[in-house]
Structures are given as C-alpha cells and as structure tokens.
Specification:
The chain has 309 residues and is of the alpha+beta class. Helix content is 28%, strand content 24%. This is Aminoglycoside phosphotransferase domain-containing protein.
Length: 309
C-alpha cells in the first residue's frame, strides 16, 4: 500500500505549462532552454531553472505530468515543510517565522569545518513561506548507504564524524536562543504553542521552555537541530562529506543537542528509510547516534522533554 504522504506532491506542485510550475501556491519555477539573465541553476540536457513569485491572479494549472522535472526529495513534503529536487538543485519551502537558512549557510561557509554545506542559488519570501534553492551535496546520503553497509565499524565511524561536527559547531556561542542571523530559532521540538505563531518562537519563550525541561541554560551553543539520515552525505574513503537541512539551526543549550537527536533523529527521512531500512537498521542508527554523542560529552534529557511535551 502506498504511503499517502508520497502523494502530497500532486497537491503541492501544479503544472502551468510544459516549462512552468507553481510550488506551494507561491513560487513559480520556470525551465529555460538558454541561459537566463536572472539567478538560475542548471537542469538536465542543457536546461536552466529560475524562481519567481507566482503571478496574481494565478494562471490555470493542471496535475503534474509524468515527465515533470520536479520530484519530492523526501517523499513526505507538505505545505509547512518541503524539499524538492529540481534539476541539479534542491528547493526547500518552510514557514517564514524566524531565522532564514541562507544566512546560516553563508556563516557556515566562512568557517573552517571538516564538512561542507550547500551553496545557495537564490531565496525569497512569498506570502507566509520562505523559499531557498541550494546545491545538492556530493556523495551519497546515509539514508541510501546505511542499509547496504554490513560494516559496523564503518557505520560507527560515520556517527563519530557527525558527533565531531556537532562538537565543532558547539564552539560557537551566543548570549540568547536565536538563529545565526539573530532571528527566532525555528525548531518545532522546542515549542508547545502554535507553529504558525511567531510569538511561539521568541528567545524568551523558548528559553523558558528549555528551563522548564531542566536544561542548563548558562550557555547557548550553535547546533544543527535537524539530524536525519538524509541530512548527511558520505563517500567510501573520507566518510562524512557534508551536512544539509540547516533551517532549524541556531543557538541552544548544549544539553539540547543530544536531547533533540534522541527525541527525533529521523525527521523527514522516515518515509524514504521505511522503503529500504529494516528494524535492525533503525535500531543501529539510533544506538550509534547515542553512543557517538555521549562520547563527546553531550547529555540528554529525553524523558524530561517527553514529560514536558
């Protein structure tokens, strides 16, 4: 039986013509057959793509064709959070309620970390949603290679590299909970209020939430806050190559790093992983993540967070 979440794309992406589509009722994606003057990214067979605000009133649309170049990269995108593969890039859509990912990617690119991050092509806010187009990281995602790997030591190497990356990130400090650009931290596990309400994400509200959970709020460190198999790419020699999914990144109590991974270390990878992972694969992923982060001294308050929720 088909997971119904795999069918959401037919509601999220509408076809205007053979070379134009509207995503999430806000962004107009256009395919060009020669290089356009505005910011673009490359497609296949010499094509190019651009993003602009969908015209108002909206043009007539139809269900996407079978040869539509836009696919749901996580097979569970919805109107609140989506990741689409379009040509040689990813388009991410999220609610515009706080820190914006292009600022995070810019700050990370200037740092000397042992991993790479996506490079932005363009971004915009249309209506209540934030759209960013960025590169697809090289290598293969852990979602793809994990079930094909019988080498437990290699899997543990990857997890220790992820934990090392998280430890490197935690060397950045701030005096409050926020994104790298000072905007609100946009992380749903940190709130209990309305996800569409900016007031649910203010530094004061989220810090109070962390204090109620019992986290040490004497310092705030930078964290990825979106661990999932699709967020990490690896290769056979170096191991961890890159980390994506930075929309929830920001300054949080150090105790939050492992608390949030133990609470949810699958996120939007769950549908894709269910297609190829066994229960044992899931257990190994969870357990090795816990071991690697504990080795770096990260504490977890999973039970306290669950009681608070």
């Amino acid at each position: 039986m088909t997971d119904p979440r795999k069918l959401y794309i037919y509601d999220l992406v509408k076809e205007v013509s053979k070379d134009a589509w509207i995503i999430n009722d806000g962004a107009l994606i256009t395919r060009h057959h020669s290089q356009p003057p505005q910011p673009y990214w490359e497609g296949d067979q010499g094509s190019f793509f651009t993003m602009a605000e969908a015209p108002s009133p909206r043009p007539p649309t139809q269900r996407i064709s079978d040869d539509c170049p836009i696919t749901d990269a996580v097979k569970m995108s919805n109107k609140y959070w989506g990741l689409f593969k379009i040509g040689q890039a990813h388009l991410k859509v999220s609610r515009d309620v706080g820190a914006q990912e292009h600022n995070t990617l810019e700050a990370l690119a200037k740092a000397s970390f042992d991993f790479i991050v996506p490079t932005e092509y363009c971004h915009a806010v249309y209506g209540n949603y934030y759209y960013i187009v960025h590169t697809i990281l090289p290598g293969k995602s852990i979602a793809e290679v994990w079930p094909k790997t019988d080498d437990g030591e290699l899997q543990m190497k990857w997890m220790r590299q992820i934990a090392e990356a998280y430890d490197q990130l935690s060397k950045w400090h701030n005096d409050r909970v926020c994104g790298v650009d000072g905007g609100n931290l946009v992380h749903h596990l940190s709130i209990r209020g309305d996800w569409n309400d900016r007031n649910s994400f203010t530094p004061e509200v989220i810090q109070k939430n962390y204090e109620d959970i019992g986290l040490d709020c004497s310092e705030f460190v930078f964290a990825h806050n979106h661990a999932m198999p699709l967020a990490f790419t690896v290769d056979e020699t170096k191991g961890l190559l890159g980390i994506s999914a930075w929309g929830s990144a920001g300054f949080v109590p150090r105790d939050w790093v492992r608390t949030t991974t133990r609470t949810n270390d699958m996120n939007q990878s769950v549908v894709i992983c269910k297609d190829s992972w066994t229960p044992r694969d899931f257990n190994l992923w969870h357990n090795k993540m816990e071991i690697a982060l504990a080795e770096k001294g990260f504490r977890e308050f999973w039970q306290a967070h669950g009681d608070w929720r």
